[in-house]
Amino acid sequence: MSNSALFYQAGVTLPLVSHGKGIYLWDTQGKRYIDACSGAITCSLGHQHPSVTAAMKAQLDKVAFSYRTQFESQVAVDLGDVMVALTEDRLQRVFLVGSGSEAVESAMKLARQYFYVRGETQRKHFVSLRPSYHGSTLGALGLTGYQPLEQPFEDLLIPSIKVPSPDFYRYTEVDISTHVTRLLQQTEAAMAAAPEGSIAAFVLEPVGGASTGARMLNREYLQGIRALCDRFGCLLIMDEVLSGIGRTGEWFAWQHWGICPDILALAKGMGAGYYPVAAIMAKADLVDTVQSAGGFMHGHTYAGNPLACATGLAVIQAMQDENILDNVREQGRYLRECLEQMKVRYPVIGDVRGIGFLQGVELVQPDAGKTPFPASFNAFSRITECAKKRGLLIYPRRCLNGMAGDHFLVTPPLITTRVELDEMMECLDQALKDFSQQL
Ligand code: PMP
Predict the structure, then answer these.
(1) What does the pLDDT look like over 355-376, one tens digit per residue?
(2) pLDDT tens digit string along 179-195?
(3) Does 215 share its domain with 133?
(4) Residues 414 and 312 in one domain
(5) So what's the pLDDT on residue 115?
């Protein structure tokens, strides 16, 4: 146990970080790690990206912080414009914040205030999926369907109506379409059971992250949810804190299906680990309704400061200059192929899912159908340790009773080359071998 005053994780001793470069990190003992999960699916451009650090240094030499109600900042204006262009003008308004949880809370409050100013004050309930992850603050955690995190705070949370997430691995119906139809019917019934006109928004991750191991929703399901939102007069909020900004091979995951939300939450990849910068984007008519009634009653001190915006702008610029989306599409396909091949070689891999550089691997007991490891086996932490010993960082999650087995994410920096992927896969192969030998 470390003697540090910091208390992030119980009972773990972590290496001290020394420095990072590209997709690699080093600890102070000189050990090198390949970052196969972009930290927390954040460091999309790897470490020490020259144009991002240069833009940040240049901004620091001008002004790091100015308050958004006292000064307009050109970098903030430019960031807003660039982001709207990335949505092909389908989401025309941007509100900057500092983290994913703040973005989700902001989306909830914008939805609520929108209905409030329209006189629909009873519209205050949210619907969300189980399992899901939307953040750690009380509102965002209220949406979250992830029991271990909810439990100690259950009676403090803003409760949401939880409906089951599609499960394209363990569904029991004859086919996926029947599975989706049943879930949509179940969801419709849950929404209809709420007092009439009381639902403000449906919140979902189009491609899940840690809670589901990169479970990707499909067109049929998303179309069904969009139709239910329209039927019940509520908004559709997509939480792309993790899947947004190029991670899946499109700027935003919703672009794979063309099903645009009313409000979009973004974070992680926006600042790419260089500075906290996050946002919500929303449709103009929605925001303008709120603005014309006095403005959004919400905000955080650090939101939209010049250093944050210079970082966000430089990240998007670098992604455009380096054709990062093409790399994610092409190398993402290769990454998927490699993981599928490992699934054949290692019976502990039950499922590989996701898209682009957002891939999830679910672990199961070998030759036992889709049976997860018992929770007490701590497969998620064992595989992480095996990977770390081989100098590889992956992003693990423990099993969720009856909903998902232990899994880990493989979410490399979006700059990762084919040669670097091969190196990553070699380490993962070794880690899976070591893990399998523990059984
Ligand atoms: N939503 C999703 C989908 C996330 O993956 C996360 C972070 N893992 C959050 C919200 C919360 O973001 P943050 O940790 O920056 O508050």
Answers:
(1) 999 999 999 999 999 999 999 9
(2) 999 999 999 999 999 99
(3) yes
(4) no
(5) 98
Q: Identify whether the C-beta of residue 293 lies closer than 8 Å to the C-beta of residue 118.
A: no
**Ligand 1 pocket, 209 CB below 6 A?**
yes
> What is the separation of C-alpha 109 from the centre of its chain, rounded to a whole number of angstroms?
20
Q: What is the 3-state secondary structure (H, E, C) of 298-333?
A: CCCCCCCCHHHHHHHHHHHHHHHHCCHHHHHHHHHH
**Among 322, 324, 340, 311, CA closest to 247:** 324
Which of 141, 216, 242 has the most ligand 1 atoms within 8 A of CB, as the residue to mutate?
242
Residue ranges in the chain whose pLDDT is less than 50: none
Residues 25 and 121 in one domain: no
Q: Is the CB of 311 under 6 A from ligand 1?
A: no
Q: Is the beta carbon of 101 within 6 A of some atom in ligand 1?
A: yes
For residue 242, which atom of ligand 1 is closest to its CA? 5
Q: What is the pLDDT of residue 2?
A: 63
Q: Which amino acid, residue 4?
A: S
Pairing of strands 349-355, 358-363: antiparallel
Could you tell me the distance, in angstroms and rounded to a whole number, from the CA of residue 208 to the centre of ligand 1?
Answer: 11
For 284-307, what is each residue's pLDDT tens digit?
999 999 999 999 999 999 999 999
ipTM score for this prediction: 0.99
| CB-CB contact of 346 with 238 (8 Å) | no
Are 194 and 278 in the same domain?
A: yes
In contact, 331 and 318? CB cutoff 8 Å = no
Whether residues 290 and 364 fall in one domain = no
* Ligand 1 in reach of 267 Cβ (< 6 A): yes
CB of 142 shorter than 6 A to ligand 1:
no
Burial class (CB in 10 A: 0-12, 13-18, 19+), 404: buried
CA–CA separation, 91 vs 340, rounded Å?
Answer: 36
Calpha distance 309→363 (Å, rounded):
39
CB count in 10 Å sphere of residue 286: 19
Cα–Cα distance, 195 to 255 (Å, whole number): 33
